[in-house]
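Final paragraph of the annual report: two paired records, presented back to back.
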Amino acid sequence: MSANSRPVYSTDHGRLCPGCAQPLAACRCKAAAAAAARPAGDGVARVSREKQGRGGKTVTVVRGLPLDDGALALVGKQLRSACGSGGTVKDGVIEIQGDHRERVLAWLQQQGHKAKSAGG
């Protein structure tokens, strides 16, 4: 084995992270990269409508909520339920299928978040 190679599989733990050589379930570098990748922002959630790159489908996008991943997933679930629509939470962004900007803005402000409409 050369000095710059690392194991990628262990019979005890399964697949290993190539960065920190820990089992994928206990990887330290993935969590650190996710925390560093999301900008801190100004604490104001921006609600916009996007259509580009989605096959002509419209989605409502919420960016800039100052929450951790678990809380963001919970807010995303509550927003999908309030709008009666599907959606997802990925990379710190909540996406709700359809144009629900007014409903999402009202819900976020009712929950005590600073939110404003962005875009056209």
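The closing record of the year follows.
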Amino acid sequence: MAEAALSSLRNLPSVDRVLRQPDIMALVEKHGRSETTLAIRETLAALREEMQPGTGVDDAVIVASVLSRLDARADKRLRPLYNLTGTVLHTNLGRAILAEEAVEAASAAMRQAVSLEFDLASGKRGERDDHVRSLICELTGAEDATLVNNNAAAVLLVLNTLAQGREAIVSRGELIEIGGAFRMPEIMARAGAILREIGTTNRTHARDYANALGSETGLILKVHTSNYRIEGFTAEVDARELAKIAHQHKVPLVNDLGSGTLIDLSRFGLRKEPTVREAVEEGADLITFSGDKLLGGPQAGFIVGRKDLIAAINHNPMKRALRVDKIRLAACEATLKLYRDPDRLAQRLPTMRFLARQVDDIRQMALRLAPVLNEVLGRGVAVEAAACASQIGSGALPLDTIPSFGLSLRPTGGGRAVEALSAAFRGLPWPVIGRVTEGALHFDLRCLEDEGAFRDNLSSLRFEAAS
């Protein structure tokens, strides 16, 4: 038996012999010698484990295995997909889709040298924030502005700059936790601020803030509750009144808007959210908000407000660690410029286009696609066009939904069949991500724009329902 096994192993070619095969040489040209050699070694090692005594391996099998391994290693992990979950700003799926203007600006910044920190007028060193500072101030009414790589970083930097070793006063009802284990108390601790929580979970009054103010107070922090809301017997102090309390005691008020918006969303039929300009007018000394949520741009965290406080933030050594690169900065500038023409924003900015989309248009698409999917999937899956509700996502307007339309796919065979169907759609060249609930796979079509490409993608779908 041992002799037979040894004989089988001798039948395996050497790495050098495999490398000399014409088909493998072509792979070397495409993937490089190092990657191809590694794939050959892995293939031969696997075959040694699998071979039965007295058997051999055809060269074609080795070549096919090497090719498969190289393709798997070359396959992109970060892949484009169809977001049919019903959540427009889905954190796990990359949040906002950028406008074409932002994509072009980012591409230009990637292809060539840019005036990132170079003042073309003076020929001297410049500041990267200068490319967007005046634009942000124009759109928000703030004295000054800066930006970092996301809103969590913006909050961290503000707390560290203004309240390190001092108290940050915040309502107990605003000590939020959002996705990715972002917990406000822990962010405060990392920033070196001392948490001074006031009020109760559901009710905080002006006197609670006034009683907490003292010589150790660094700032008052107001936090947008993002992905939850307390209703019923509640009380909170609005930002305007809070600003008066803060200024009477010469303490800065920081208003963390979270998602943040530069326009009134009620023009799209959504419930009104406070805009950044309104937060400035209400008297907050600093306002922080995101770039990749309701604003519809790349991931970024904006800080706007008093000039002296922005200057202090920019002198914080942490600012360098949290700054944005040229690619994101270019996309931010292009996105912000679109807000100068709010009447055409829904046509040019994908996030607003999705939110403003008419439900009847989505319904007509669902009616066209239902028979297509019926034909692709066969009798084992019942496909029905059905009304549904979209949500904005990423903590914005957590209880609000938008009427929408989509497809409900219900295979025979119960829960396992639904999971298998969902996996089949995720396995497409362009994965399709929906929502599994109530024994069916649901696709909300609000974010589907290229209907033709979606149909073509279905040609690769492989799924057999239980008989």
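The CA atoms of residues 144 and 308 lie 9 Å apart. This concludes the annual technical report; the extension proposal builds directly on these records.
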